[in-house]
Amino acid sequence: MTVVDETPPAEAAAVEAVPLAPEVPDVPRRIGGLTRSGVLSLFGAAASGLCTAVLLFGELAPFSGSLGFFVTAYAAFLLVYAVLTGLEEDGQAVRDRVMTVVLWTAAGLLFTALALVVGFTAWRGREALPHGNFFTQDMQAAGPLDPLTNGGIAHAMLGTLIMITIALTITVPLGLACAVYLNQIPGRFSRFVRTIVEAMTALPSIVAGLMVYAVWILGLGMQKSGLAAGFAISVMMLPIVIRAADVVLRLVPGNLTEAAEALGAPRWRTVWHVVLPTARSGLATAVILGTARGIGETSPVLLTAGFTAALNANPTNGPMISLPLAVFNFVRSPEPTMIARGFGAAAVLMALVLVLFAIARVIGGRGPGHQSKRQARRAARASRQDLERFDELNAARGAGNCATSHEAPAPDDEPASAPTHGDSH
Asked: For domain 135-370, which CATH number applies: 1.10.3720.10, 2.40.50.100, 1.25.10.10, 3.90.76.10?
């Protein structure tokens, strides 16, 4: 059967004459970065918000106060920026842009506050920090009226290091062990322990100091010392480390532990070789948070360590002082030199915290799957050693196979060996 095309020639020519539309390439949507319109909208909204606040506070309304002025200007800025962004984008993009601006503003305010605190402390302590004796001498032979060339905070620096070392020695094993227990052994008792830990997070520091003072000093008859202060600081650090470590251990993928247990590894080996190494960087962060909480405590140290102006390196005998307590005593004095020593001690305390954080970060390493250059070189060296060992084993196995294949078989007409004494019987 033959199919006949009944399309008129004129229509067929018209169809052939219509050009095909060119294919438009798929352009991915831009979801980040700065654009010209976005920058213009941002600065235009900022100018509009500032002008609106000036009109409201200066002409239209009886408003006053710098805080209200900035809040009004910022609210008008967000409103105008949302309107300008909505002229070109859809609602989802408008919400995304506005929330991005809000988050950047919050981050900028926090960074500004931190910079002001650090800068103000360093600026007020600039008179005491340049003197070398400030870091090498104690206040035993210096008084409030002595110049800054006499006396220092060596006793407070050593006391802080000793107290925080004692607290970390107690807190890190107990905190990590408790976090592993809460994560790996669920049950009624673990829920009870988690509730107690959450309640201890809000424990006032003075209560921890009073507890150690009542048990260690009044009950057992011990004297005030750096050891007692370390006990009190560890009470404050322990719930912070437990909660942060528990949250980090929950983030370890379950398929890792399942794979380890499927290979026959016991629970303790799975935790030691799989769970803890995977969460190492997060556990270092938990220790950092606990250290930041304990190193700045003042009231527990005042109740349990006492006060001294002399250098004491023995945490079990005699009173001891820490940097926060030294700052507290220095700034209470009306003398400018003592106040300068207080701000200098505060600057040293911040520098000490920064150093401890850096050490914890180095010990914690990077997250799982992210190796440093030294770790990558170590892994490559171990891989080469394994490859050489496998090559040696394969070479030895090949030599043994060749020796077996080249061994001549015994002839069929070879006489049988003489019977032994056991065969004759």
From this structure: 1.10.3720.10
